[in-house]
Please model this.
Amino acid sequence: MTHRSASAEETPVEALGDLYRDGITACRGAFDPAWVARVAEDVETAFQEARSRPDGAVGRGPQRWYVEIHPEQLSGFVDLVTHPWVVSVCRAVLGPDYEIVELGFDVPFPGAAMQPWHRDFPMPEETRLRRRLTSLAFNLTTVDTVEEMGPFEIAPGTQWDDGRDFDHEMFPPKERYARYESRAVRKYPRRGDISARSALTVHRGTPNVSDRSRPVLVLGVDAPDAGNAAHHDMAVTRPYWDDLPELVREHLRCPVVDTLVPITQKHTIEGLVMGAE
Model:
């Protein structure tokens, strides 16, 4: 699942095969590590700001936090959403009218525990009935991941599991864990790599036993009918909007405002807070 960077007009055949077979794909070395270093600085600044106010960051288990941010808080936002591989995957999977609906980051700190197996939201009927993926999560690490940092673990192919008998349609019962563990693959991305996955593919964070945090940028993109934008509060100011490339304005679905208001996190996944081992 390592592919060269496609042009925006190409159909990324290998990535499509990965996503529909395994539920995850990747583009290695998409960005220079120096670019990632600037992203890491923005993430650290945003995290400190979020933690300074109530509900600025939401817990996803012990020593694990999620923060949603506005595009203007990330200096590399335009570079990320116009990267040819990102654009080509969005078009191929979600259609020409795909919508950018979420920007945030997940930070497992030292002491982060094993998460329960889960998917990020219940399976849409469109996916259940027609096997069509209606959303993608793009991830970009700000560090070179090693085992001690608690790498992301995913069970390939489980994006098609029905899930109606999961707790909240998101958390499979523990008696089925053996199936996911038999499929489990841990990911060790390096700075500059981008991955794309279906948020329905069953996955979990593993324990961070290192002395370093492992920040991961999250970009959420929907097909027009997916409806996930309602769970997010991204916004941009008018001057920022006016300076955006047309390619970005075509797909960025968020309000244009006079003044940005810090985001209050509302996408809480209670099972991750209560279920960590």
Observations:
- The chain has one domain: 13-275.
- The domain at 13-275 is CATH 2.60.120.620 (Jelly Rolls).
